[in-house]
Each structure stands twice: as C-alpha cells, then as structure tokens.
Design a protein that fits this description.
The chain is mainly alpha-helical. The chain is 55% helix and 4% strand. A hairpin with a 5-residue loop joins β1 (4-5) and β2.
Length: 390
C-alpha cells in the first residue's frame, strides 16, 4: 500500500476505499472469483465441475485438505459427521428457545454460538483440533437449522440419522420423513455451489475474527451475522417474493422498470465482483431444471427465465455501465423452493453450505495470517476543548 508522510514523518494511509472494493486482504488457496470471466475456482476445480458430481461432504474435505477424499477417507468423514450430529445440551436448549421467538437467521446465530459448549479441549490450537472443530460445525450447523424448523412448525423433535448425507439428514430432521432422492440431490448441489466464494463479506468477517486468535465457533457465529443482510445472503427470499409478485411474463417489464425507477434494487441481480453472469446462477438453474423435470413443475422456471432476461435488460438501460447480471441468489430461490424449503430458510441453507468455506478460511488464517487491523481515515473535527462545550 502506498503511503504519504505526515508533518512529523509518520506514515499516513491512503484515503479510504469505499467498501474495500478491489483491496486484496488475504492470500488464499481456497477459491478464486474471476468477475470478468464469470469463473469460480474451488481448490483448482471450476464450480461447474464439482456441482452435481461431488457431494457436499467431498467438497468440505477438498476445502480443508486441498484434495478430494479417497473412498476410505470419505467414509471416515461421513462417520465423524454422523457421530457429531448430536447437539450439546446447551445448543439444543438454545434452539428450543429460538424456535419460540426468533427468526431463522437469529436462531441459527444463537444456536451456533452455543456449539462451543462441548469442545473437549478449547485450549488445543493444533491443526488436528481445528479440523475436528470444522467437522463438528459442518455436521451440526445443519442440525441447528433442521431442529429449529421442526420445532417452530410444531413437530416432535426428530433424532438425526447416521446413514444419511448432510443434505438427506437436514431434510429428514425437518420433516420426520426421508426425502426423495431428487430433492436430496438438489439440496446437495446447492450446498456444493455455495461452499466457498473468495473474500465475500461473511468470509472476511470469519477471517477477521480468526486473525485475533479467537475460537472457531466465534468466527462462524460472526460470519452468520454478516450473512444475514439482504445485500449478502439475505437476498434469495426477496428474489422469490419478486418473482411471485411479478406473477406472469408480461408483467415482468413494467414491474421491474417501476421498481428501479423508485430506487429499489432488483433482488438476485448485481454483484461486487462479477461483471457478467454469476457462474453459480447457471449451475443452480441446471439443478432446478433437473428437479423440475422430475416434479413436472416447469412453469415457475420459465417465468424466472423471463424475469431474468427482462431484469438484465432493464438494468442495462437504467443503470448503464454497471454491468448488472444475475447472481447466485436468483436461482437459489427456485431450487430451494423445489427442494421444499420455505423462503425464510434460504439464508440458513446458505449458511449450512458456507460453513465448509468459513471453517477452511479460519484454518488458513490461523495457519499463517497476521492480525487483520486496517486503518480508517479520520474526517471529523480536531482540537475541540471540553470547556468550550460547557
Ligand atoms: N438493482 C438495481 N440497481 C442495482 C442493483 C440491483 N440489484 N445492484 C446494483 N445496482 C445499482 C446501484 O443502485 C448503484 O447505482 P447508482 O450508481 O446509480 O447509485 C450501482 O448499481 C452500483 O451499486 P453498488 O451498491 O455500489 O454496487 P455493489 O458492488 O456495492 O453492490 C450488491 C453489490 C450489494 C450485490 C448489489 O448489486 C445489490 O444490492 N444487489 C441486490 C441484492 C442481492 O442480490 N444480493 C445478493 C448478492 S450475491 C451474494 O452476496 C451471495
């Protein structure tokens, strides 16, 4: 970073960069977002290569270890995940409380915060201990979401099943019924697609917390807080509401033009890094299409395609030069609805998938990163006197 000198010779930082746009804050081997080419690389693999082929468990392993697991390594991981699915009493009590009076993202944050309760050795900072914590979190975050959903809809608590995948078990614990294979596959593909994505706001949050040498549960709890906002992980619910309000293809143009004219944002469009269509939109569209072929519900998909086409056109006209295309959240909404999730569970589902990336970033940061401590540019007054105000 270039600096200027102040009168006393101390280094003066450059002016603040709004939203830290373009600022590189970490070196990572985990993922790369190429916003001009519309390419997402995860540990060397294009997202299109993994989604629909590798399971979420395999991709979590890939993020943590740098390579895909052998079949025996995968089997071992699946066994550990099944073993860790039982929540500690503190987390279960937190989720029970949350189901009575909190929204899903607040409940997730509250339940996950209690997951440090049964860490067998909180002072162990070895890579093995961190990896064990990462596995626990990837195993339990879905259980927090599923248990919350089950309880708030008035169902009896459903114990997790050891023989099911993460995607299969979360749907099972929510409903008490084993989900059909296409729904499980749809959710699994979604989790893979959102597992990691460069230095997004929630991952940055996790890395800042990790950089202070705080524990992994604190980092993931903070990341969930960052994910909640509608400019990050909170968009798919509103994106679905938008598509539903539009309702039919001919209403898309007047509806979207009116919204943008009134200064509203079209949810599921635009991205800080992608200047072309988000590659995850394509992956999720394909997954939604496969599922729609199974269920025969293609009408919603056709409407969404038209809304996408018109949205891109309206934004190109009304916001020229901004290059606003569809982002991951747009088809997330359709896919997760087909899977059977209600819109307010879309952001928690995002959190389930991103836990793989957050935990990997935590470990990478702890393994070699420095304290993240940027500066601010002071623009307030100076030399005020206490006595002048009295
Ligand atoms: N609809 C209408 N206008 C938009 C949109 C949108 N979806 N996105 C950006 N713009 C406009 C802004 O109004 C602004 O216009 P102006 O210069 O005339 O004021 C211009 O484009 C630039 O917007 P910024 O907010 O500076 O762009 P930034 O890179 O910070 O925003 C963001 C990225 C937050 C994703 C934005 O595109 C947005 O709000 N999208 C809608 C919400 C959404 O889909 N969020 C999910 C993102 S994906 C994810 O996080 C997983």
């Amino acid at each position: 970073m270039s600096t200027q000198s102040t009168a006393n010779g101390a280094a003066k930082p450059d002016a603040a960069k709004s939203g830290l746009e373009g600022v590189v804050v970490a070196r990572t081997e985990l993922s790369e977002v190429d916003g001009l080419q519309g390419r997402l690389t995860i540990r060397g693999y294009d997202v299109e290569e993994l989604a629909g082929r590798a399971s979420f468990e395999e991709v979590a392993y890939l993020l943590w270890h740098g390579e895909l697991p052998s079949s025996s390594e995968l089997e071992r991981l699946q066994g550990q995940i099944a073993e860790y699915r039982r929540l500690p009493d503190e987390a279960r009590a937190a989720v029970e409380l949350a189901a009575k009076r909190m929204g899903p993202m607040d409940a997730l944050r509250f339940g996950v915060a209690a997951l440090s309760a049964d860490d067998p050795n909180p002072d162990d900072e070895s890579p093995e201990a961190h990896l064990d914590r990462a596995i626990r979190l990837v195993a339990r975050v879905p259980v927090v979401v599923a248990t919350y959903q089950r309880l708030r809809t008035g169902g009896e608590l459903v114990e997790p099943r050891d023989d099911l995948s993460i995607a299969g078990n979360v749907l099972y614990q929510m409903t008490g019924k084993e989900a059909e294979a296409p729904e499980v596959k749809g959710l699994d593909t979604y989790l893979v697609t959102v597992a990691d994505h460069g230095m997004n706001a929630s991952t940055f949050t996790a890395r800042v917390i990790a950089s202070t040498a705080a524990d992994m549960v604190s980092a993931i709890t903070g990341a969930i807080g960052a994910l909640k906002g509608p400019l990050h992980g909170g968009a798919p619910g509103p994106a679905l509401t938008m598509i539903e309000e539009i309702g039919s293809p001919e209403r898309a143009e007047p509806w979207m033009r009116d919204a943008v004219t009134k200064g509203k944002r079209l949810m599921g469009f635009g991205h800080r890094v992608y200047k072309v269509r988000d590659p995850r939109a394509e992956v999720l569209y394909t997954a939604a299409e496969i599922l729609a072929d199974e269920t025969g519900e293609r009408e919603a998909l056709a409407l969404a395609q038209e809304v996408e086409r018109v949205g891109v056109q309206v934004l190109a006209e009304t916001k020229p030069g901004r290059n606003l295309s569809t982002n991951v959240e747009f088809y997330t909404a359709l896919l997760l609805r087909e899977v059977g999730l209600t819109p307010d569970l879309f952001s928690p589902a995002f959190g389930i998938g991103r836990t793989a990336g957050w935990t990997a970033h935590y470990m990478e940061q702890r393994a070699g990163g420095r304290l993240i401590r940027p500066q601010s540019e002071y623009i307030g007054p100076r030399d005020l006197r206490y006595s002048d105000q009295r």
